[in-house]
Input
Amino acid sequence: MKVDIQWNNPERYSDMEENLQYSRSLFRQFSNEMESFIQDKAHLYLPTDTTLELTFRDVDLAGEAEPWRRPSADEIRIIKDVYPPRLKFNYKVIDESGEILKEGMAQITDTTYLWNAAQPGTMRDKFYYEKELMADWLRKNLDNLPPIS
Output
């Protein structure tokens, strides 16, 4: 099983705020962590002879920077239910012969992300909510693929 992830025009993503140096650093952290996370999770649902291609088109992290709170607050994300995580991406699942088993565009969000069950990882993982959103999508959309014969 192979995962190929592309980040389409990340400079235009929702969370590339005015402080571009911070935003670029945050994006690098996010993309590295998300790529590792998806690699780890996708193998639970995909056969070994398939490829999952993801092309991210937008990322809007949970919370929002509110720099008006104080001058250096642009590096602090305020988590409120009105700022849910959102991911927008195209996807393809391809078998070893090149046949497309499944493809589409996903726009996913979780407006109840703060109401979910106990979340022990939230304090340790900067991108906990986005990873949970992606894990849920992987489970719901890849777990029922037809078997390859």
